[in-house]
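Lecture 7 notes: from sequence to structure.

We start with a single chain of 340 residues. Read the sequence below before looking at the structure.
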Amino acid sequence: MFRSLHHRLWLVITATLILPWLAAGELSAQAPDPDAAKKEGKIIVYGTTIPNIMVPIHTNFEKRYGVKVEYWRASATAVTDRATTEWRAGKPGFDVVFAINGTVSLLKKENALAKFAAPAAVKFPAQFKDKDDMLTAFRHTPISTLYNTELVKAADLPRSYDDLLDTKWQNKIVMPDPSRHTSTAQFLWNMQKIKGDKWLDYARALARQKPFLTESFAPVPMALAKGEGHIGITYAQYVTQVKGPLSHVVFDKVFTDSTDLAVGAKSSSPNAARLYIDYLCSPEAQKIIAETGDFPLAPGIYPNVKDAEKVVANAIFMDNPSDEQFKKLKEDFRRIFLGQ
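Now the structure, written as tokens:
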């Protein structure tokens, strides 16, 4: 009798705990179903890439699979904030969300994402694989120093992060406000990889340069092109993606972070969402990504950006502060950069 009871108990545990776990793992690794995706017809994507850069990718995806993409773009901070707010309200509006790893990872902690391991990403570098199979990295975003070629002579270019502290750059630097922009807070926090314990001293010195602060990385190159600043801290790909007299200088260490895609846990079009993510990791889409100036994760594919191979060779991938660290960083940077 005891054995019979024990056996029945084991069957219940297996059915309620183990089998669902195995099914979830199988689902996360399954290849997307194009027919099921086509029946769903549409996906809503929240992302950080400038809309016109996504046009060729979305055009090819829609033509190939018959699934329409509705795309909303904002900064990494705004994308994550909107997705989090909607999730907590019980009304998530996204099927797919993507942003740099440091911010989209916050949605994992909210349990707002579903498992999915894109088959097309299997050959991507192992360091970008998410152990929980919720995030799929498809590109990375090196942070470089851009400059207006009509305002800065080659001989005057900064050659290191320390050179940005030269008094000649006072009131001439454009960068995102680290008290509002999560990615810039992460960038400055990671300066400890170069400056060690003195990283915060570096941030204070940079603030004393009285930089022109923007909402995110995207407005920085436009401000430079308009002559509102001479040099700026922003993404390297904007050299080719934004029109104007722009170039960039590559330091011996270049901070970067992966941009990660994820399926919403309550997506109304889960099949189309998985298909979209897998497509962005395909060789076809990775080449399109490079052609637009972005840095894809597929090995050996480089964008048409000056010194792209040097950027990749000098890349240092950033660590992610915890939620509490992010909160404190923004408070510290509010005092340092805004005097509040």
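The chain has a mean pLDDT of 91. Keep this in mind for problem set 3.
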